[in-house]
Design goal:
Two copies of one chain form a homodimer. By secondary structure, chain A is of the alpha/beta class. The first copy, chain A, has two domains: 2-170, Rossmann fold (3-Layer(aba) Sandwich), CATH 3.40.50; 173-358, Up-down Bundle (Dehydroquinate synthase-like, alpha domain). Chain A is 46% helix and 20% strand. Chain A has 13 helices and 13 strands. Chain A has helices at residues 25-31, 46-57, 76-88, 103-115, 129-135, 173-190, 192-206, 210-230, 245-254, 262-279, 285-297, 309-316, 346-356, and strands spanning 2-6, 13-18, 36-42, 61-67, 96-101, 121-126, 140-145, 148-155, 160-164, 304-305, 329-334, 337-341, 357-358. A seven-stranded mixed beta sheet of chain A has the order 1-2-9-6-5-3-4, with helices on both faces. A two-stranded antiparallel sheet of chain A has the order 7-8. In chain A, a hairpin with a 2-residue loop joins strand 7 and strand 8. The longest helix of chain A is centred in the middle third of the chain and has 21 residues, at 210-230. Chain A is globular and about 60 Å long. The relative contact order of chain A is 0.11. Chain A binds chain B through residues 35, 76-77, 80, 83-84, 87-88, 90, 92-94, 114-119, 140, 142, 145-148, 151-155, 233, 317-318, 320-325, and chain B through 35, 76-77, 80, 83-84, 87-88, 90, 92-94, 114-119, 140, 142, 145-148, 151-155, 233, 317-318, 320-325.
């Protein structure tokens, strides 16, 4: 097992990464101290892992909230249902909420934990690659609004992230590829060597090789923990983690959160961020081609059909990085060198959207 | 104008208390820097003060969210409606939410501000005595659940509290008396001299004397700011501010938030806390009588009819101060000396509930 730490003073917590953790009962007893535990999961993941987790949590009082699967269910109303379960079971402020599942489950369980009695403990048990490398770490919780992605939520750090890499063996290939988009993102933000490594080892990752997956989970969490530790509330550098997300979120919102997995939209979004960086004169077209090839090899979308450039732009205008009416973007000078800027040619954005969105 | 400061490091903010502040346009321009402002108010307060506030905020873009009046509307669903208005108007993270009204408006507007884009600025403009002396200060935001009072919410500090004492001239007498319950609370918690002063000057307060009201608003905010500055997240002393609230919240929840104003329930709750302190051997019965007389003179309820002691106890079990299944209570050694304890005779609680609740 590998242990990383997110350093946030009194809110610091460990990320535990290893194979078979869900099958080690003593392990969970150690990391979930509460007497009363609410496990939030969904109809896909619960049948696979809820029994093992419950076994590990005994003799605690365990209550379950099982939600429908999918990004389109990540709503304010769903969080209200989780809160109803907490109240109905008379859970007090010293309870713990455990999120067992992917990013959607973790975001909603975390938001419910943030709101219940103005904040109770929660533990992330991510079971998808995307959740293990990205969404379970860093304390961003929340839900979508029909008008925009993740517009409602809270910063609420977990007390532990427990990533059992064995769960990836049951992950559908489409979900695995979606998770790889966030992995590629870390290379693009700040680690060109990691991007090189991904170019070399992508086929192993796509084949589900446990050692290769363990490596990318560790390195991704390491980068994320470091950035979050520096800027918990996204006043500065943390926005780098949004590379590809302004484009990707627009793709998701414009399609009603139904057509694309989050990671798929981010795959296309990363390519758009590279193209935009090139259109704005920051990045070479040769590097854009490297990004495109890796996204293609991961079988992630390279454009978003069914959404007009105008509609995409309209959705981008409600991105959380907008300030004074201006859309700020995460762009790249080169692979492994991302930065946040509002200083780009408007025409470059228009050209990028016209090239990558279309009816 | 008097200015107090809540000292919370980077989240410090001023409480500005004075007559006629809403009629000073320049004043609001100074304290609401944002370009886009959402004013949250209710159908009672908006007709009285919204025009004046809007005048003070021009030329900002001002959008309004006007809610129905009353504690029974302080729900998760109502907060969802405020969030819908923010999204529909494409407000970005640099907007400000202004709460114009009493405690219900402030709690909901603050919770919406806490959740929108994971936190935007908000300003409290309290127009009731209860909001000016208590609920607008300290950053507790949230909504009720049918199962319990304020069970869902967030700690989210305002960037300023602007209390125009002139608004109290339009306050219905019932609301004024409800606010006095929270004022009496501060004397009971930690300031016996203030309690004496209230005994002497209660008639002036009930008559709406501006100087007397200005004094109690200032002193109440001063006590609250000091306690919140010491313990923002209620890990310790801040729970003292809950004196009377475990009993009062049970009375509110058991009557569907329809029968009693919050302050009225707290009036009865303060007397119950005193009686319980006496039953437990902490406080003399002579002091309980002083508390009873002041509550009676303020024309606040001294018992809760229509709720059985058993139902009241059941509601108390979901209080946010419960730990390990045990209800912690704020009790008093004497007037001006409150403390939090789980160490009281169970029989004393039973006797107190049987004396003050009944069908």
């Amino acid at each position: 097992m590998n242990i990383l730490k997110v350093e946030l003073g009194s809110r610091s917590y460990p990320i535990l990464i290893g194979a078979g953790l869900l099958r080690q009962p003593d392990f969970f007893r150690e990391h979930v101290p509460a007497r009363d535990v609410l496990v939030v999961s969904n109809t896909t993941v619960a049948p696979l892992y809820l029994d093992a987790l419950s076994e590990g949590l005994r003799p605690r009082r365990i209550v379950e909230a099982i939600l429908p699967d999918g990004e389109s269910h990540k709503t304010f109303t769903s969080v209200g249902r989780i809160l109803d379960v907490l109240v109905a079971n008379r859970f007090s402020r010293d309870c713990t909420v455990v999120a067992l599942g992917g990013g959607v489950v973790g975001d909603m369980a975390g938001f419910a934990a943030a709101c219940y009695q103005r904040g109770v403990d929660f533990v992330q048990v991510p079971t998808t690659l995307l959740a293990q490398v990205d969404s379970s770490v860093g304390g961003k919780t929340g839900v979508n609004h029909p008008g925009g992605k993740n517009l409602i939520g809270a910063f609420h750090q977990p007390i532990a992230v427990i990533a059992d890499t064995t769960t990836l063996a049951t992950l559908p290939p489409r979900e695995l590829r979606a998770g790889l988009a966030e992995v590629i993102k870390y290379g693009l933000i700040c680690d060109p060597g990691f991007f090189d490594w991904l170019e070399t080892h992508l086929d192993e990752l796509l084949a589900g090789d446990p050692r290769a997956l363990a490596h990318v989970i560790y390195r991704s969490c390491e980068i994320k923990a470091e950035i979050v530790g520096r800027d918990e509330r996204e006043r500065g550098d943390r926005a780098l983690l949004n590379l590809g997300h302004t484009f990707g979120h627009a793709a998701e919102a414009a399609t009603g959160y139904m057509k694309w997995l989050h990671g798929e939209a981010i795959g296309a979004g990363l390519l758009m961020a590279a193209a935009m960086s090139s259109e704005s004169g920051f990045m070479t077209s040769a590097e854009v081609d490297r990004v495109r090839r890796l996204i293609e090899r991961a079988d992630l979308p390279t454009r978003i059909d069914g959404v007009s450039p105008e509609v995409a732009l309209d959705h981008m205008r409600i991105d959380k990085k907008v300030r004074g009416g201006r859309i700020r973007l995460v762009l790249m000078g080169k692979i492994g060198d991302a930065f946040v800027t509002a200083d780009y040619p408007e025409a470059a954005l228009t050209r990028t959207l016209e090239a990558y969105f279309g009816l």
